[in-house]
Sequence to fold (326 residues):
Amino acid sequence: MITMTKDASSPTPADLHERCLLGGGRLRLRGNCHCHSTYSDGAYPPGQTVARYRDAGYDFLYLTEHCDKLTYGKFPDFDALDSPDLRVLPGVEYRATTVRYGRPVEAMILGLNTLAISHWKSGIDQQSTIDAINANDGIAILSCTYWDGRSVSDMVDLQGAAGIEIYNATCEGVACKGYALTHWDELLESGMRLYGLAVDDCHFNTWPDFTLCWIVVCVDDRSPAAIGDAIRTGKFYSSCGPSIEEWSLRGNRITLRCSKVKTIACNGITCSGRVIHAPSGETLTGFSFDLSERWVSDLPWLRLSCCDPDGRWAWTNPIWLSDMKQ
Fold:
């Protein structure tokens, strides 16, 4: 039975740590994992870019300059930009290539926690790029997948990618191709294990691309290592507005608690899932359901999302139910 929640009580921190599907860390840190400065094709210098995110209350920021567009032939000085209140972390946006309908097309891939570019060359394929990122202890994220024209068939055989951008504010602003939820779900259905990230891809250009979305990592400290590990292992959620306060398993029961929303959806393979709508003039702050219910009992994975009254979505990462049954 699905239970809607209009005024959920708060669990104790100890309870959350034991069964929190977000990861159980005592800190929630908000950050953007895709951003550019004048060191590639962004409008503002690194210091000004960092200051704007600091003023907006962010906890961490990945500067991910294009490896093939380095204005000064080098990356920013991350040590000089980093500070305890806003961790500034290294990353690269790689321009790989795939073949679609007999013609080469771009395939953008983010490498977080790495600045390695010695392997990069024009025409490099996606798998070679991902392999190089992982060889340098980076985190490979499939980026701009709807915008750059990739289909699921272009990605389904890739090995070693940790995640996919499920919302990219710049891709939405310049081409209305920011959402990649279909790509994500199809790749999950194929058996790939990918976490979903919402990113600004901020350039401070003529389209809206600043503080429109973010991820919230669950960590025990503010160190770069803790932030990187949370992204690598899916201990975060993504949002364009709503906050997710609890995403937990108690016995056989899944619970979501969130800020006020109008819709909560549970998605699984193909058409499986449930959608809960708030009555007219009201909002929801959560729901729960039992994993033994018929509609969910045979699903290999599921994920939850919620939409606030302004039409802004937030997404959990998938959980693989087969892992929980072991």
